Amino acid sequence: MNCKVAIVYHSAGGNTKALAEALASLLPDAGLYRMNEFDLHTLPDYDALIVGTYTWGNGELPAKSAAFYKELDQLSIAHLKTGVFGTGETNYHHFCGAVDHFRNMLFAKSQLLVTLKIEQMYQESDLPRLQKFATLFQDY
Prior knowledge:
Layout: E1 5-9, H1 15-26, E2 31-34, E3 48-54, H2 63-73, E4 81-88, H3 97-109, E5 111-119, H4 127-135
Parallel strand pairs: 1-2, 1-3, 3-4, 4-5
Helix pairs in contact: 1-4
């Protein structure tokens, strides 16, 4: 059985977009969507949702990610396998804090499988972590 996966991300500087594209290359049947272009009403059509965001300020969600978070939090998503990934900078006290916000909500509301935090732009040395992340969303 193929797992129908939606990868939904928000990126400003390109780091999170590059990470989303890298994950999508490891899950070739997954749909890749910008957060503001994804219709949350289509979630019943999916088996899994992977959310990607960067972190703003001191561990906060960027405005577009916060709006998506609020809408997603209102939905019944218990059927979904979920994961969350993000980019940030370790010199901030709350490294990838936006990932933690999504993780906490998705843990309570869905079948959270995995989280992934990457320092700024992913590097070749991060590829084993990306592959491990993607493996959880392949056929099961």
